[in-house]
Amino acid sequence: EKQPWMPTHPQKPLIIKTGVQFTTKVRLLVKLPEVDYQLKVKTIFDKHLPPGRVHRQFFILTSTTKVMDVEESSNGCLSVEFRHLQLKEKKYVNGIKVNEGPLSVTEELHSLSFEAQFNIQGINIDLETCSFPLVVISNVSQLTGGWASIMWYNMLTDEPRNPDFFASPPRASWGQLSEVLSWQFSTFTGRGLNREQLCMLGEKLMGQQASHNECQVSWSKFCKENIPGKPFSFWMWLDFILELIKKHLLPIWNDNCIMGFVSKETERACLKDKEPGTFLLRFSESHLGGITFTWVKQSDSGEAKLISVEPYTKSRLSALPFANIIRDYKVIADGEVPENPLKFLYPGIPKDESFRRHYNSQQSKVFPYISSTWIPISTLQ
Amino acid sequence: EKQPWMPTHPQKPLIIKTGVQFTTKVRLLVKLPEVDYQLKVKTIFDKHLPPGRVHRQFFILTSTTKVMDVEESSNGCLSVEFRHLQLKEKKYVNGIKVNEGPLSVTEELHSLSFEAQFNIQGINIDLETCSFPLVVISNVSQLTGGWASIMWYNMLTDEPRNPDFFASPPRASWGQLSEVLSWQFSTFTGRGLNREQLCMLGEKLMGQQASHNECQVSWSKFCKENIPGKPFSFWMWLDFILELIKKHLLPIWNDNCIMGFVSKETERACLKDKEPGTFLLRFSESHLGGITFTWVKQSDSGEAKLISVEPYTKSRLSALPFANIIRDYKVIADGEVPENPLKFLYPGIPKDESFRRHYNSQQSKVFPYISSTWIPISTLQ
DNA sequence: ACAGTTTCCCGTAAATGC
DNA sequence: TGCATTTACGGGAAACTG
Hints:
The structure is a homodimer of 381-residue chains.
Chain A: E1 5-7, E2 15-17, E3 22-28, E4 40-45, E5 57-60, E6 65-67, E7 69-70, E8 78-85, E9 87-90, E10 92-93, E11 96-97, E12 112-120, E13 123-130, E14 135-137, H1 143-156, E15 172-173, H2 174-188, H3 195-206, E16 216-217, H4 219-224, H5 234-254, H6 264-271, E17 278-283, E18 291-297, E19 305-308, H7 314-317, H8 322-328, E20 330-333, E21 344-345, E22 349-350, H9 351-355, E23 373-380
Parallel strand pairs in A: 2-14, 17-21, 20-23
Antiparallel strand pairs in A: 1-3, 3-8, 4-6, 4-12, 5-9, 7-8, 10-11, 12-13, 15-16, 17-18, 18-19, 21-22
The structure holds a DNA duplex (18 and 18 nucleotides).
């Protein structure tokens, strides 16, 4: 049966951090006949705990009731916005310590319930509604895991409420998953993932296959198991890259300068017949949240030699923007004049043509001092 | 009259930040005859508020009573340590909003009181003692101001408690003050301030004088008024330098490589007859927490030309340690080969002799990538 | 409008619990 | 002991408040 009112926010916060304020809003979708008293709404966290399941338990630290009001910016329906709500964990319930459940914290799904009563022509009517599933975290380091849960849930079910979803999470086809991943990038950056990039991700996750689209990817493979030989999962690796783009690479990502998701094999295939100085930008597969460039080096033997720089991470990119690194990078080889080995962005666009608009002069005039900056260099011996 | 017990901690925390845990310890200095019950101590914040003075008011958020215990590590006397104490401001007292006092928050002096009662042979005895003055802040950005108060108080009074001290703070002679400042540096770094450095500070604070030692410095001049033409006070400037040393310059400061406090005039006098490549390290007077180097440039006209680089601040020094900057710094002049202009540390010590032990190789081997680093450069046109 | 002050909260480090 | 999770809090920025 259709709810007569709807929470219009949680959809949004979806991930709530304990001790950090969040906001939620409920709107009454039906017009009530004039009521002569104020309609008070109460918010309850996890009103319907899944029976038998061990869950962390939380409560709303701040005030939980508020009176509905006519919404100005709309067609005069009633709504209420709770601000400055804050969650805290109940460590003990009836003096007994709460145990951890069988799921990891970012797989626990919670919810906010809203309730109100009103009386119309002598009949008491109870209203109740409930938010979409919420993940509760205690530290931003858990955002990656929480976001994975939200994605998986939204991708694979239309149920508004299924707190047990992660007790046995369904698999996703690569067709579904790749679409969602691309959508993540286009939402948070402005550019999604193209066919080649998705293909590399598919191979990384599922190995070489004739066609990936019908392959099924398990929840565990996606974000719980580590990539073989690496201390992080596939999604963790990908989300750190997304964060790196958001904070340090946005314009050049959106401008399509970053091939990014390229296997070592494809990289070699792309570059091996290119002229020296051709380079491409690739996200590191060994380091979390790192980007590197690989270029073709002039070689005496005639065979193409590919060289990659140590990946730049967020801490290094906050010292110098990536476009400037590309512009100024120098390799110092014994006895030779330092030279910038980056000349043509793959397949063959002169570097400055691709990056000029992203160079950052940042020459702070600080009279009487002379300004200074960093030049990124590598030494070849 | 002598207190029969003493708080042994606050002396230490001296500055307490609201919402951040602190620890305090009280020790009973007299041996009590055996008592057959436990001696309970209660902690009270600002028990004796200065009458008539408007003060911010705080309370201890956490538990405030604890039982004294025989101290293991000592001669068996009673002591109690309060841990995880936390302060919170009372914004309203009896429903009335507390106004701000006439002093700035870091000039308000507070105190922790401790009280206990015991009964000996039918006589009730009350014990009470009180900490040294405390400054309460709400953000680390106020540490500089708080520390100034502590220094001024300790320098100019021996009273264990005088909450009104900053209602009319006494002046300090430069003799006293300079000693205290030098002591700050030696306590927090390992090297104090020498005569030349103190002389520069004296001139900065009081202008040119035959002898500074008898000059009186007002509290306001020290840390409330801005330096003419600058948006910060003398002490704020100095404390930012102290922080810079603590975090980024400790070994080279302790190794006496940093002249540091040098006026532009003295700098010119020192360097003007030195050979090209002679340089010295100086803290910026225009930027908070910055260090620069000034060197003698080879000049066609024969006259010495002094050049200073834009000051390095903590954010830039966390990208590259200062010793490496000195080692690798290059100036690029039109059409010339980039050159490191820093050759002899004033008065004439070959650079590597002074700095070699502080160079940091930090070559992270990251096969199959080639490692990279920053080279600090300036461009002269 | 503004300055002094506090609150907010990310992100790293340390502590805690299982 | 190691891993998962929470707590602690510095530091930059925003919000608050007379």
